[in-house]
Each structure stands twice: as C-alpha cells, then as structure tokens.
Amino acid sequence: MTAPANAPLSSRGRIAATLPVEQLAEISALFEFRRTGYSLDAPFYTDPTIFKLDMEAIFGQHWIFAASTAELPEPGDYVTVDYGPYSLIVLRNDDGGVNVLHNVCRHRGARVLTEAAGQTGNLVCGYHSWTYSPEGNLIHASAPGEAKFDKNCFALKKAHGFEVAGLIFVCLAAEPPTDFYETAKIFEPYLAPHELAKTKIAYQQNIIEEGNWKLVMENNRECYHCDGHPELACSLFPTWGLTEGLIPTHLEEVWERNKVAQSDLEARCDRYGLPHQVVEELDTRVAGIRISREALDGDGESFSADGRRLSKKLLGDLRDFRLGRCSMHLQPNCWFHFMSDHVITFSVFPINEHQTLVRTTWLVADDAVEGVDYDLDKLTYTWKQTNIQDKAFVELCQQGAASPAYEPGPYMKSEYQVEAFINWYVQRVQEHLA
C-alpha cells in the first residue's frame, strides 16, 4: 500500500460541520428514518448537499476501483481518475508499484496532467512549469525574489493505492478501512487464474449517464429489468437473482436450463480447482462484496449471441473456455465479469448529483491480435448495447426522482441486492456523521 507522506484532504464530518443545524437535522433524519425495503427519498438523488456528503463519506473514505493493471503496464504509465471534486493521478513507478497523487499543482492549483492516460517521466504543470518527480516531490520551481522558498514544503498531496489480483484501488482517507484487505483475500483466489497482469486493453468506453451515481449502482444490482437487455439475455440467464418460488411462468424453462448449466459448471470448476462458491457480504462488512462463478447460456463460454468464445486466446493458466463468468460486485463503485477469453471491468465515477461517468474496459490476453484472435466489434457488442440500455433506464429514474409526484417504492424480492447496496450506503454515511 502507498502511504501518504502528508495528510489527505478528506476529514470526518467536514461537510456536516459547515451545515446549519436545521439542514443537518433534516439530512440526518433522511438517513435515520429511511424505510427498509424501499427506494430512497428524492433528495438522495437530487440534492447537491447530499451529493457533497456522498463524496466525503463514501468516495472520500472508502476504497474506490480506479483502473486495471493492464492500464499501467510500464513505469511512467499513468491514468487520471476524476470523481466529484477530486482528480487523481495513478502512476506506475520504477519499483513496479503505484503512486497515487492529487492532480492539483501546489503553485496555484492547476491540473498537472490533463490527459486521461499517458506516459510520463517527471510531472510538469503546463501553467508555470512547476515540475514534480513521479513520487510527487517538487524538483523545479523558479521563485524570483522568494529567498525563503522551500521546495520540500510543496510536494503534490498523496493518497493511498492498493493493487491486488490485477486491480488498482485508491483511497483518500487518512486511515483507509482495513476491512478491504480481508475482502481482497476473498476475491483474489477467484481472479488469480485469469492473470490480469498478462492482459491488455482491447477497448475502453466512457459514458456519461444523466443520473445520480446511486441509481447507476442500483440498476446494476438487479436483473428484474433484464427483459430490457435482449442482447445480454442471449448469454446471461435472465433468471439471475431469482430463486425457487420466484420464477415467472415465462422463465421456467430458462430456469431449468440454468440449473443444469450451473451444475455442469461447478463440476468443471472442481476438476480444475477453481473456486465457484457464492460469497455474499454486500452490507455485512465495510468493504462489501458479492462474488461467484456462474454459468452462461448457449455454449457457456462468453457474452455472445450463442455463448461462444469471443477471443481465441485463453487467459492466464485457464485450460477450458467453457467456464461461464466469474461475477464480482464491490461496494461502492464497481463490478466485473471474468471469462476465460476476456475480462470486462466497470467503474462508476460521480460527476455531480445528476451526472455519472460509467467506464467500461474490455481486456484480452496480451498476445491476442485484433482481427486474428478477436473481432473488436463482436467482442464489445453485447455490453455496448447493454450500457446504452442501462443509461436510458437510469435516466428515466433520475427524471422521476426530480418530480414532485415521486415517492419511494418497494423493492421486489429479486431486488434484494439493491436493498443491500442501499443499506450499506446508509450505514457508511451514518458512521461518518456520528
């Protein structure tokens, strides 16, 4: 883990301390009297003050998925990650680790790096050419007439970084939640066989959804709406999230096919020594998680119209294409699909109370050749279409939340993971306000 040499910007209760007593009481009451099993009150999705609280209590205190190892393969490679008021530089250092730096020049606050990704040696601010080392130390600044100027006092501010199983996480808190390291021990054995360090980016898509970040996450946490994803339903069983007794008549045949496919998958995983058990602790730990290996429909290999593989190259040390998908949800901003032929990562970065950036990245084996081993359009087709559909669903909900006629509605039994996400969110903010 990369430990900051100076204090991070976030501090507990900073927003709450600046609010009038009456406004703080109103916001606290929204959390305290939130009705279990129902969607949140409208201000959770529309109020700019609650958004600022979210940025402080959730995105300022917890581990956030930022990028994959494949995005930073060599020393000097970097990505910039923006959410809410924050901008971070995530940089591969010469020792093979990652440095996480606030992308704010210590001279007059300009963005130091303005590209989304790239390669750099020293970091040079384009405004007045203040120059920093990859560790964030100020190494050059002309200061005419400033006899007492001490460069050691003006290093870039640092945040924490943690890289595990090919995924890179960042945290702004002075003391990051240590529970995340225990969560990492849960998911690392599931991900390790895919060897993300030996993958490369095939494609990355950024979509801005006109909706609050919580609506984006809620939409992902259920398949009650999956009839609206015809391309995805070719390979993803639309009974996902359902159990015996909850299967609608039109899905009974699909449910039976799903059970057979899942039984076959688990036997195959046992043969290869791959973990497949469901671990579901979405709201019972600080670093909430759900992970499992689940069957896909058709040939059971990948997200395609017939379930067949989309890349000819197996990932890592996997020996079989027919391994379904390893599905992982982590609170608060990400979800993943790990197949034997490629990986898809999803990260959610709030912009403001009514806009959210959703970043989707497709990874393939580092020796896979586009046009030979995979067709890029076919590789990305299912989830490009699904993302467009989800964008529309989220935006419909945001429009509804802004209406005076809106009131919280009940979650269905199949939406229990949405309830778990909201319960996790409410717990975390209340802890922050305490």
Can you put this structure into words, describing what you see?
The chain is an alpha+beta fold and 434 residues long. The chain is 27% helix and 22% strand. Strand 16 and strand 17 form a beta hairpin. The longest helix is centred in the C-terminal third of the chain and has 26 residues, at 376-401. The protein is globular, with a radius of gyration of 22 Å. Residues 1-5 and 7-12 have low confidence and may be disordered.
**SS class:** alpha+beta
Estimate the global geometry from the Cα principal axes. Answer: globular
Alpha carbon gap, first and last residue: 28 Å
What's the SSE pattern?
HHHHEEEEEEEEEEHEHHEEEEEEHH
Strand portion, in percent? 15-25%
Portion in helices: 25-40%
Rg, Cα atoms, Å: 22 Å
Q: What is the residue-averaged pLDDT?
A: 93
**β-strand number:** 17
Arrangement of strands in the largest sheet: 11-17-16-15-14-13-12
**Biggest beta sheet attributes:** 7 strands, antiparallel
- Per DSSP, the total helix count is 9
- Low-confidence sequence ranges: 1-5, 7-12
Could you give the topology of this structure?
Elements: H1 14-18, H2 21-32, H3 43-46, H4 48-57, E1 64-68, E2 77-83, E3 86-92, E4 98-102, E5 117-119, E6 123-124, E7 131-132, E8 138-140, E9 160-164, E10 167-171, H5 179-191, E11 199-209, H6 213-220, H7 252-272, E12 279-281, E13 289-294, E14 325-330, E15 334-338, E16 343-352, E17 355-365, H8 376-401, H9 416-433
Antiparallel strand pairs: 1-10, 2-3, 2-5, 3-4, 6-7, 7-8, 9-10, 11-17, 12-13, 13-14, 14-15, 15-16, 16-17
